[in-house]
């Protein structure tokens, strides 16, 4: 039975997509069959794994709002064991369209129920908000994985994210856990980053991964080639740190 | 009559808040009476200028969804001639609440109409999405100001932002112009940044400001002190670049 992770943080630009794509690829090379779902209208995760622009009616939008099954929209990627459900621009209107629907928060959970037999892990890349798309992801997920930039504004938003997760756990998804908090774009020469890292480890000692992701320009170059970092530059610090993260994550999961 | 600017880009973490706060402060010290409106549920712009957490019922939410006037929620800041309308957590639910309202896209435009007599400029800090809050900002604005990080994902989203602006111009706000595109967190030692900057100047030659904002850690430290960069470290490269931006912006406006 697949473990479903929502990669989420309402703060923008903290490394959600970079983490979903590269942790996904790293799990795949560890022989874990992995499905990446791009739930962001921006479609960055789709780009990041080189997904082709979905033909009309073949994206996560058509699963969430229409009646298509996940299996009808899945694409293969260049990484064996990594598949992707692409986003589309229509998704930008989905939050408004979902408002009036019955059980609007559970549409994604319903779609995933019988579709994920063949996977070990499902990673959902969320948009930078706590709207109905992210609520759908948190309702469908077994746990949330929170990328966090070591910056003041990003720290400020963390409490609100955990409060929202508490609300979802009470009202919609009692099993929603926390897979962990991963510090991203870390530059330890910078005082602010050190202070924020200390602060987060103090407040959430049980959640923060030992592995941190350094700021590494190769990570920001890879998307322009439509490749995860493992295929773009496997020897880069970015690639090695996501492989380390995958190993630590699997250790927490009790598998290897 | 005030000029209203929507500081917007649906890509997360590109420097919208940092630009709204620091361009706002720089305009204020150029003797322009400036109002900053925090339209993001994250409330980062409110933090960035040291706004006190609004008492119950005293934020932009109560203007947009309730019936309060802008003048009833405005706060002064430490910078003379810079005032702020703070955000609140309630705003996270505003997009859903707006869906069923009459003329839902024009709520902010209506609220601003008779409230901005006393200002030269109004800057609206938008959330990282193209939902109803940003649509309200673009409908109320005379022009949009677009912060852009020199990264691949950020470049990818630019076309969609301009298409959305075209739709707003046709359906809701015929006078919506473009104040400009400002390149942020620029590190010209980095090849990708140079390529993206070239690409943007090629596609939007008339919009990109000459002034670019360098990556400068002092800019990310200032918010933890609740101060714009001018009050935190006026000699920093960050502060000087936003003063330059204000001068160039006012030059384009035909005033000084
Ligand atoms: N460790 C890193 N080192 C260098 N650049 C990075 C790193 N992680 C991410 N980036 C770059 O920083 C930018 C923001 O990252 P990303 O888009 O993954 O964040 P996000 O949280 O998904 O953003 P959004 O909120 O818009 O969805 C991107 O341009 C990305 O390429
Ligand atoms: N020129 C800069 N140099 C260094 N750090 C910067 C610069 N501009 C912004 N930052 C920092 O980068 C992060 C992202 O910037 P900011 O929050 O202003 O972006 P945003 O577009 O408003 O994000 P969101 O999409 O979440 O609203 C913040 O932590 C900010 O302090
Ligand atoms: Mg993303
Ligand atoms: Mg912001």
Number of helices of chain A: 11
Note the beta-strand portion of chain A. Answer: 5-15%
What's the end-to-end separation of chain A, in Å? 16 Å
Mean pLDDT of chain A: 96
Helix content of chain A: 40-55%
Ligand inventory reads: adenosine-5'-triphosphate, magnesium ion
Radius of gyration of chain A: 17 Å
User: What is the helix/strand order of chain A?
Assistant: EHEHHEEHHEHEHEHHHH
Q: Classify the oligomer.
A: homodimer
Strand order of the largest sheet of chain A: 3-4-2-5-1-6-7
Give the overall shape of chain A. globular
Sheet of most strands of chain A: 7 strands, mixed
Number of DSSP E strands of chain A? 7
| Unreliable sequence segments of chain A | none
Largest interface: pair, residues per side: A-B, 37 and 38 residues
By secondary-structure content and strand pairing, the structural class of chain A works out as: alpha/beta
In short:
The structure is a homodimer of 256-residue chains. In chain A, 41% of the residues lie in helices and 14% in strands.
Question: Could you characterize the architecture of this molecule?
Answer:
Two copies of one chain form a homodimer. With 256 residues, chain A is of the alpha/beta class. Chain A is 41% helix and 14% strand. The first copy, chain A, has helices spanning 16-29, 44-48, 60-64, 94-99, 107-113, 132-140, 152-171, 191-203, 217-221, 229-232, 237-253; strands at residues 3-7, 34-38, 75-76, 82-85, 121-125, 143-149, 177-184. In chain A, helix 7 (152-171) links the parallel strand 6 and strand 7 (177-184). The longest helix of chain A has 20 residues, at 152-171. Chain A is globular, with a radius of gyration of 17 Å. The two termini of chain A are 16 Å apart. Chains A and B meet through helix 4, helix 7 and helix 9 of A and helix 2, helix 4, helix 7 and helix 9 of B. The structure holds adenosine-5'-triphosphate (ATP) (2 copies) and magnesium ion (2 copies). One adenosine-5'-triphosphate sits between chains B (12-18, 40, 44, 128, 184-185, 213, 215-217, 219-220, 223, 238) and A (11-13, 128, 151, 153-154).
């Amino acid at each position: 039975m697949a473990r479903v992770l929502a990669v989420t943080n309402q703060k923008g630009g903290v490394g959600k997509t970079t983490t979903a794509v590269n942790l996904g690829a790293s799990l795949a090379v560890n022989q874990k069959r992995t499905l990446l779902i791009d739930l962001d209208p921006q479609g960055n995760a789709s780009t990041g794994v080189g997904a082709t622009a979905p033909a009309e009616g073949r994206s996560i939008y058509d699963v969430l709002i229409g009646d298509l099954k996940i299996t009808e929209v899945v694409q293969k990627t260049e990484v064996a064991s990594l598949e992707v459900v692409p986003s589309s621009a229509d998704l930008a209107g989905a939050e408004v369209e979902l408002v009036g629907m019955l059980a609007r928060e559970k549409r994604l959970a319903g779609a995933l129920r019988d579709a994920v037999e063949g996977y070990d892990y499902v990673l959902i890349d969320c948009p930078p908000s706590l709207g109905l798309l992210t609520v759908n992801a948190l309702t469908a997920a077994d746990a949330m994985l929170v990328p966090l930039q070591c910056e003041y504004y990003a720290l400020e938003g963390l409490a609100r994210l955990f409060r929202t997760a508490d609300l979802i756990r009470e009202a919609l998804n009692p099993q929603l856990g926390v897979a962990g908090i991963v510090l991203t774009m870390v530059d330890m020469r910078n005082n602010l980053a050190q202070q924020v890292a200390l602060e987060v480890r103090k407040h959430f000692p049980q959640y923060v991964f030992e592995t941190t992701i350094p700021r590494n320009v190769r990570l920001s170059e890879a998307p322009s080639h439509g490749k995860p970092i493992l295929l773009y530059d496997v020897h880069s610090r970015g690639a090695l740190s996501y492989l380390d993260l995958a190993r630590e994550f699997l250790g927490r999961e009790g598998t290897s």
